[in-house]
Amino acid sequence: MIREDINDTALISRCVSWEPGAWEAFVARHASFVQAEARRQLLRYLARVVPSDVDDACQEVYSLLMKDGARALRQFRGESSLSTWLACVVRSVCRQFAQHERSGAPTNLEIVAVPPSEDHLAPEGLGEALARLPARDQRLLRLFFFEGKKYREISRDLGLSTNSVGPLLGRAIAAARRLLAR
Fold first, then answer.
1. pTM value?
2. What's the pLDDT tens digit per position in 90-148?
3. Residue limits of CATH 1.10.10.10 in the chain
4. What is the pLDDT of residue 89?
């Protein structure tokens, strides 16, 4: 359990180290700010705000922060406040989202993880590894990879927020990899 009084820099350090509970603490601490900023930026760029667009933009922000081994989150150096830095990330995501909207191109922000290949999850022993995962991780992986469900569908099925599906999926994949490596 992550203490609520931990500072942002220490919390980010724990997130990039994949400490259990750190990402959930980060999202809980900053979700209202990210959501408000996404709403403000979408209004700025699109002159309208649709709740599902705000959800998609927030999901993309969180996914961007954690993908590729939390590369984007590792870039925070503390030279500004975290809220200033997060506002820049949200603004960038919303600007790209608006460009996709205006171009008429389909916006596909829900697919943020690449299905595992032989390099990530070897087929042999995969069933056994999945069976050793916690029930929620098993269900999450099955819904995404085997049933091809989108984040919104998974969040409804599992009773999670849409924004938490990507990070939880990443952790479930990492846990399956660790089990397969044994």
1. 0.58
2. 999 999 988 888 776 554 444 343 333 334 444 456 677 778 889 888 888 888 777 77
3. 126-181
4. 92
CATH number of 8-103: 1.10.1740.10
The region that residue 125 occupies, defined by phi over 0 for left and psi between -120 and 50 for alpha, beta otherwise, is left
Residue of higher predicted confidence among 100 and 87? 87
What type of residue sits at position 156? R
Q: How far apart are alpha carbons 100 and 98 in whole angstroms?
A: 5
Q: In whole angstroms, what is the distance from residue 90 CA to residue 92 CA? A: 5
Contact residues for 166 (Cβ-Cβ < 8 A; gap 6+): 59, 62, 63, 66, 112, 113, 151
Q: How far apart are CA 152 and CA 161, in angstroms?
A: 8
